[in-house]
Amino acid sequence: MRLLLTTSQGIEDLAKAEVENLLSGLGVPFRVEEKPLGVEGRILAEVGEALYTDEKGRKRELSVSTYLNERSRLLHRVIVEIASERFEGIGEEEPDLALRRIEEFVSELPVERYVKVSEPFAVRSFRKGEHKITSLDISKTVGKAIFERLERFGKPKVNLDHPAVIFRAELVGEVFFLGIDTTGDSSLHKRPWRVYDHPAHLKASIANALIELAKPDGGPFIDPFCGSGTIPIELALRGYDGRIVGLEKYRKHLIGAKMNALSAGVLERIEFILGDATKLSEYVERVDFAVSNLPYGLKIGRKSMIPGLYSAFFQELSKVLEKRGVFITTEKRAIEKAMTENGFEIKHHRLIGHGGLMVHTYVIE
Ligand code: SAM
Fold first, then answer.
1. pLDDT for 213-226, tens place per residue?
2. Which of 32, 66, 256, 315 lies in the 20 to 30 Å Cα band around 151?
């Protein structure tokens, strides 16, 4: 089976490592590839059949897609691949021609092997790049081709609101992909614990990528701008047994973070402190790890305040941080100045796609 896995752009390597780690636990042959056909934010996993023995000693097939949906912290979707194809030149083609190519391709695919004809289905599509067609055009065209194919075997049903089966069609640049979306309409990064919605919350998948980059080893850990608590909550959910602190300046967000932690079942594991990160050493004497998405000044506060805020924060951080810090922000110049002026060394930099922007991510020591 071939699974197309989606995640945020810029963390494919970390998601690949997570998937390899999860699949190793199943004892099945597998191969995982980052950015198949050059598509960012995508991972391809080829996995052999996984069997388990039930309580009556019978061999049963384990659903690898369910296993990944339930266990992964970095993935957004788990899609069973039906087919992938590169459509050379589709970006410049007039809509009629581009859609005809997609329709002809899909109508030849044995979609009947993946669904029961009687199950109501819907097609959800995703399009990225320069094209003369829209994602709605793709949904309609693919839906029509699947319907006509399934009509050969019975009476297919479409249900756009409550489908039993979701086909996912993607056109990213010239690469077209069709699969069965086993995740459903809500992406895995939308965690069920989120009862308080911070206006600038971090995707949980990216929070986990930052935690991976920090490599916390059980020592004290802080998110000094914790907002709704995404990073400390995700760390606690990973079973971290060291001290976890979340600091936040605004009471409203701190209460929201506590509500989220309660809903995640980890409130007891996190010390939430109402306070100002530019006075960090007043709240913690020493931490080994600090991981945060800093205020960008786009959604929160005034942008002109950012250089001063970052400079005061990193000065304080230099008094308490023992091992490693991981920070994410759009404000490249301000953060690099604040980090280097306060004696931190940038060990790693990468760009991660978040909220439609490519955001700078730093590992410092
Ligand atoms: N990671 C968080 C989440 O997922 O909800 C969002 C963090 S948001 C980008 C930055 C947070 O920093 C905001 O909640 C803001 O109120 C807080 N903040 C701004 N200035 C602060 C300061 N001086 N000290 C502590 N927190 C501050």
1. 999 999 999 999 99
2. 66
